[in-house]
Every structure is written in C-alpha cells, then in structure tokens.
Write a structure and sequence with these properties.
The chain is of the alpha/beta class. Helices cover 32% and strands 17% of the residues. The protein has five helices and eight strands; from the N terminus they run βαβαβαβαβαβββ. Strand 3, helix 3 and strand 4 form a beta-alpha-beta unit.
Length: 238
Amino acid sequence: MKNTIIITDLRSPDAQCAREFLQEKGYRVECVPDTVCLWDEQALSQWACPHGDDLLAIIHPAPPAIRGGVLEVTEEDWSLARNEGPLAAWCVAKVFGGIMRNNREGSFIFLNSIHAEKPVGKGLLFSMGCGAVQMLSREINQDYGTDCVRSYFIQRGLTDADPDLKSDVSTIYFGLDLRYPERKMPSCGQLNGLIAFLLTEAAAPLSGSDLRADGGMTMFYNHRTRVEGRPYFEPQSK
C-alpha cells in the first residue's frame, strides 16, 4: 500500500497541522522545499522524481491572499497571484498527476477557501485564483479519473489566522466568531479528520466534488429563539 503524502506549501497553519496529524497516523509526509518554485514545472519535476513510486496523495493549500479591490491591485500583484495561484496548481497537477496516472492510484486534495465562491471586495485576485483552482480540480477528475486518480476541493471556512480582507461591501469578516453556529472560531487542525477520510477508498464517490467545510458559517444567519405568541423566530440577543 502506498504511504507517501506530499504537501506542496507549508505556509498555512492548516498545512502544518495536517503534516503533524498525518505523520502521527503513520503516513510518510514529504514537503516541497521553499527552494523549489511550484510554478517551475521542470524544477518541480526534478524534485518529484524520487518520490513517485510510493506516492499516495498531494495536498496543495491555497497561497496567502493579496489584499486589494478591482482598482487597487497592481501589475506585480497580478503576476504574483497568477504564479502562486492557478499556475502553481496547474504545474502541481501536471507533474504529480502524471506520476499517479502511471501508478494508477492517488488523490489530489486542494485545501482551499470559501472565497472560491464568495468574493469580499478586497480579495479580487485571491477569489479569482481560488475559483480557477476549483475548476482545475474538476478538470483533473475528468482527465485523470479514468486512471484511478481522484481530486477533491475543500472550501475551508475563515479562521483567526487568515489575512484581513475586511471591506465596506461585505460584512463576512465582522463578528466572525458569531458567524459560526457554535459561536466560536474553529481550531487549527479542524480539517485533519476530513483529509484523512479523503485518503481512503470510502471517499471515492466524492471525487471531483467541492466540499464546503466551513462549519456551517456561510449557511448560518443568526441564533434565534421562539417568541411566544408569534409564528416566527426573532434574533436572540447575546
């Protein structure tokens, strides 16, 4: 049974927690070093070659967000967002997809963000990049699925570790802890169990899907309570 999991980017707390969790589960976890540029296909291929025979899965987190609205981002911002976002994900898919296709086994897990579908007004390039990687995951499922390679796109909820993308056109970053039904922010490593499940055969029917793993945050409106004598609910004061 193949046992190696490669995490392409360790800058996010979720990726760091996943590495520790999976190592404790007995997986061999390798991380692409900072010296290897993810959007340099040749460099990535050279690094990947020795890790191919035992490759089970790739975990590719979203890059750090770039703050800025439509009229604020610069050409340098566009270039960085393209390279670290869709271009890096495409190179990762091409390099490791070829390896897993030859092995006829393996999974891509894109540890991404709800901003793939939810813009906030100050994260233009980040939302565009997330959406592009979301579509890439679906295409991977189509192109590699016949060779037993799966792909999953996780739309992670917001946490304290996320960059500040507050804007005057969205309230999603205000009172963030109250936006979760449990009225508390998720802990680091909240997605570890889901990642472990996606490594199993039981997750096969979910291949190609977008998994909204945000703890109900984007579907939660307010804590409400029954008001006697009225046929509806009213907001509950904290």
